[in-house]
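Box 3.1 A note on notation
Throughout this textbook, protein chains are presented in two layers. The first layer is the amino acid sequence; the second is a token string describing backbone geometry. Keep the layers aligned when reading.
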Amino acid sequence: MNPQRPDLAIPRSTRGVKPVLIACLFVSLIGCALCAESREERDFSAEFGPYLGAFALYDDAHQHWLRYHPEVCRIRTTPCSTFKVLNSLIALETGVASGPDFSVPWDGAHYPIEAWNHDQTLRSAFSVSCVWYFQALATRVGLERYREILPKVGWQRRCDGRRDSILAPKLFDRFAR
């Protein structure tokens, strides 16, 4: 008991609680430190060449971020060609595409990239980022399956403050034709 401050006296029944609380706090802080995400920034300028780009990779098993230009990574943009990765996985998972040699016949339209102007397989379309092929895959997967799958993988974007994504029929129609 503190003779100058009797209001600070710790009752006998709670004297052992303070060390236990301190121990719990210490264990909690150590646990949080061990579970905290780590971040690493790396220079990938050689891979990007003259282009301004950004890269973010999250390793869930180790709760670790690897980033190049993290300030650019924070800016929401349209997924463009990066969506072909998820589009391919969804096509494979749903059975729309059977594997890397899954072929879609060229429709005969002339495209500005010469490598697009013939039949494509998933492998060849991926290597040349053939937009019409991935649009054909999206059409075959269908809007309803995207509505089911995309939220499960956390894919969505915001545009002008409202939810907007490939799941909106107008945008899906524009993407998948």
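The first strand starts at residue 38 and ends at 41. The two ends are 80 Å apart (CA to CA).
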